[in-house]
Amino acid sequence: MERLRADCERCAGLCCVALPFARSADFAVDKPAGKRCGNLTDENRCAIHARLRVSGFTGCSVFDCYGAGQRVTAREETVSGPQLFAVFRVTRQLHELLWLLTEAARGGRCPEAEASAAELDALIDGDVAALLAADVEAWRARVGPILERVSERARAGLDGRDLRRGDLTGKHLRKARLRGATLRGALLLAADLRGADLRQVDFLGADLRDADLRGADLSEALFLTQPQLNAAHGDSATRIPDTLARPGHWPDHDSPPSAPAPVRRAKAPRARGAGGRGGSGKGRRGRGR
């Protein structure tokens, strides 16, 4: 999974230029696609990375390119200018699918996922014109059933609840026993999940913005992504999969009990097949450097 982790040191700041964002609760300013962010330095580094959230750029702290930035930057000798940005926009979406397929294939549990990931890799590294012409939505539709089958096998026998696409915004689910449930595409904005058992829960496309995960056990969660974690609140007692990194804004100690976060009524991203609501793109963009 290492190659699918963002490495800003090896990237030319592509997401700070290629992708747009709109002034909102997540972004302090408007920026069209193709224009450099005003916080991007001449060395292609974010000047406010250490204080993104307090500077009004929470969306940037949520975003993750799944390693697409460094992969596209490595092609600068053959691709440049607007075409480079277009390649990045497509590659980032395909890298999200690669992340999900790679998780599905871990331990040899799904040869079909492994084969699809290899096909995607070949597409990304191949002819630029073919990459730009790729039908991302068709790929999402193709990957979705593969992930569904893996999820069903992983959750078999656990009698988990089917809460897919449910509106659980602000729900009090503290210490809930949700092991084996499916929360695909569910709205969990500001949900109180403190101390909940979330092992073997399918989080594909779930919206976890401002969800309270303090003390929750997500150690064996299925299809949980870095942007989903980045958008939520947790602490040192929150258990996460070993493939993900603990978000920098989470405290490094157990947090005392407190009221759950207030519900942010920001418009949720449109659900998109295998990527679902949880994928943080741009338009409503988020990113950390």
UniProtKB/TrEMBL annotation:
Matching Pfam families: Pentapeptide
Keywords: Repeat
Keyword Repeat on entry: yes
Protein origin, superkingdom: Bacteria
Keyword Protein transport attributed: no
Gene3D superfamilies per record: E3 ubiquitin-protein ligase SopA
Disordered as annotated region, ranges: 233-289
Name of the molecule in the record: Pentapeptide repeat-containing protein
Species classification: Bacteria, Bacillati, Actinomycetota, Actinomycetes, Kitasatosporales
